Amino acid sequence: MSFEVYGYLFIAVGLFILWGVLAKPTFFWSSRIAERTRKLLGEAGTMILYLILGAALVVVGIFSVVGVINLMN
Q1: CA atoms within 13 Å, Cβ hemisphere of 17
Q2: Distance between CA atoms of 47 and 16, rounded to whole angstroms?
Q3: Cα(60)–Cα(43) distance, integer angstroms
């Protein structure tokens, strides 16, 4: 199995998180973890945290796919 798969997985998960934050589907935004995070950080803080997390995963995935970083080393 090629290690590029992990990069594509990071990209997919990052895009899913970004979509979840922007579209706010019930199953995503009302999950236990999201509700706890919203209680702790508030609505805006949770959105910012998830946007940063999603964007970071996408960037790391892209860097992995193009060979800038190696996720398995």
Answers
A1: 21
A2: 14
A3: 26
d(CA 60, CA 26): 28
Place of tokens 């998960």: 13
Q: At what angle do helices 32-66 and 4-23 cross, to 10 degrees?
A: 140
Amino acid (1-letter code) at residue 1: M
Rounded Cα distance between 45 and 8, Å, is 27
The per-residue pLDDT for 27 is: 92
The maximal CA–CA distance of the chain, rounded, in angstroms, is 41
pLDDT in tens, 10-69: 999 999 999 999 999 999 989 999 999 999 999 999 999 999 999 999 999 999 998 888
Q: Where along the chain do its domains lie?
A: 4-66
This model's pTM is above 0.85 = yes
